[in-house]
Amino acid sequence: MKKSIANIVNHAEVSEKAIERYLFDSVKMAGGVCLKYSNPNMAGYPDRVAIMPNGVTVWVELKSQGKKPSKLQVIRIESMRQLGHKVYVIDSKQGVDLMMSEL
Predict the structure, then answer these.
(1) DSSP secondary-structure letter at 88?
(2) Which residues contact 36 (CB under 8 A, 6 or more apart)?
(3) What confidence category does residue 13 fall into, taking pLDDT thresholds of 50, 70 and 90?
(4) What does the pLDDT average to over 22-50?
(5) 59 by DSSP, 3-state: which?
(6) DSSP letter, residue 3
């Protein structure tokens, strides 16, 4: 089945990679740094950390539009929140905008 150009362009706008680029750019424009987090020994943790001005640090799990975290990710995110960490699960550029407005 052939994909139409419109479908390809739409996917490029809602893919995790596009949302990730938007997150990095938004955090940088606000004076922060967005880092990838990877710990091969502990799966399920959010894969980005946004370090913002004034000592604000938040964790971000990005998904392609409409996708949800795995069961393990839900468990890890909840345990981090119980420890007092701010964790966002974002699947759109609008979600990035909402997070940035809260920060």
Answers:
(1) E
(2) 47, 48
(3) low
(4) 95
(5) strand
(6) P
Dump strand ranges (E) for the chain: 33-36, 48-52, 56-62, 87-90
Q: Are 35 and 23 in contact (CB under 8 A)?
A: no
**Strand bridging mode 56-62 / 87-90:** parallel
What is the C-alpha to C-alpha distance for residues 74 and 29, in angstroms, rounded to an integer?
29
Structure tokens at 26: 């938004």
Q: What is the pTM of this model?
A: 0.83
CA angle 71, 44, 88 (to 5 degrees): 85
* pLDDT band for position 53 (cuts 50, 70, 90): very high
Q: Which residues pair with 90 in a beta bridge?
A: 62
Q: What is the pLDDT of residues 82-93, one digit of tens each?
A: 999 999 999 999
Question: Contact 99/60 with Cβ under 8 angstroms?
Answer: yes
Mean pLDDT of the chain: 89
